[in-house]
Amino acid sequence: MRIAVLISGVLDYRRPIDKPSSGNWLDVIDSPSLPYRLSPFDEAALETALRLANLGGNHLTIITTDCSADKALTCTLLAYKPDDIIRLSVPSCLRGNARGLVTLLSVELEQQRAEADLWLMGREIGDLDDGHLAPYLAQCWGLPLVSNALVVNTQLTDLSLQRLRINRIEELTVQMPVIISMTNDRRNRLRHPLMKNLALAKRQTIPLHRFDLGSSGAVLSKAQLVAAEPVPTRYDSLENCHILQGEIAAQAREFARLLIDKTQSI
């Protein structure tokens, strides 16, 4: 089984951020020295990938996106001894743009896309905490998607897993290839890398692959981001706020009456 895990990382609040060479803090997003750390969901996906890879005969590829320029985090990932690691430098104009990132990933990961049996990633990878990337990938690549997975196990050619629903845990069996987005759970808490592996990782050099926004495949850019219009609801109203007056008991009765009127009109 060939496993690919996507890691984006989040900004590390514990490490200082260098001021951009331009002197303008608004340019910090383009700074190559931004410090990153693994999010809890990145850790869940990575631990699941490591556990499955250690079962024997499985090939693990780690692919980094937003955090690729952080050498310290790259060394940490190398210390887990994956079979391959690919560092993809995502243009700042496409961070948070799930559709644009999927387009670029489709171009740059064509070989891995054809070979991988299992794609793992955190449930909020590379976006603005809305969890859009995994569904976009599944739709564009024509693969089934399982979201909010807690634990994944192998069964010959199938995968058995548990995923979190609104108020329950659901057990599933799925066939590969498949995309799975992970949420954190005590059973997929990330292990610590060995110190000797960390020392060896510092001696390795992994090239940083930069996207070419001018290539035929990378057609989406900052200019194609569209501002979303607010969705109208039945709660929208041009009326002014209703101010409650009088004693506390009278205000409570008036508030109850308003709630009853509103719920009856829905």
Just name the CATH architecture: 3-Layer(aba) Sandwich
Number of strand segments: 11
- Count of helical segments? 7
Tally the structural domains.
Answer: 1
What does this structure look like?
The protein has 266 residues and is of the alpha/beta class. Helix content is 27%, strand content 23%. It has one domain (2-227): Rossmann fold. It has helices spanning 40-53, 71-78, 98-108, 110-115, 133-141, 195-201, 248-264, and strands spanning 2-7, 10-11, 36-37, 59-64, 84-89, 118-122, 145-155, 158-164, 169-175, 178-182, 208-210. Helix 2 (71-78) links the parallel strand 4 (59-64) and strand 5. Helix 3 (98-108) crosses helix 5. The longest helix has 17 residues, at 248-264.
Task: Quickly describe the structure.
With 266 residues, the chain is of the alpha/beta class. It contains seven helices and eleven strands. It has helices at 40-53, 71-78, 98-108, 110-115, 133-141, 195-201, 248-264, and strands at 2-7, 10-11, 36-37, 59-64, 84-89, 118-122, 145-155, 158-164, 169-175, 178-182, 208-210.
Which descriptors apply to this entry?
266 residues, alpha/beta, Rossmann fold, nine-stranded mixed sheet, two-stranded antiparallel ribbon, 11 strands
Write the layout of secondary structure elements.
Elements: E1 2-7, E2 10-11, E3 36-37, H1 40-53, E4 59-64, H2 71-78, E5 84-89, H3 98-108, H4 110-115, E6 118-122, H5 133-141, E7 145-155, E8 158-164, E9 169-175, E10 178-182, H6 195-201, E11 208-210, H7 248-264
Parallel strand pairs: 1-4, 1-6, 4-5, 5-11, 6-10, 7-10
Antiparallel strand pairs: 2-3, 7-8, 8-9
Helix pairs in contact: 3-5
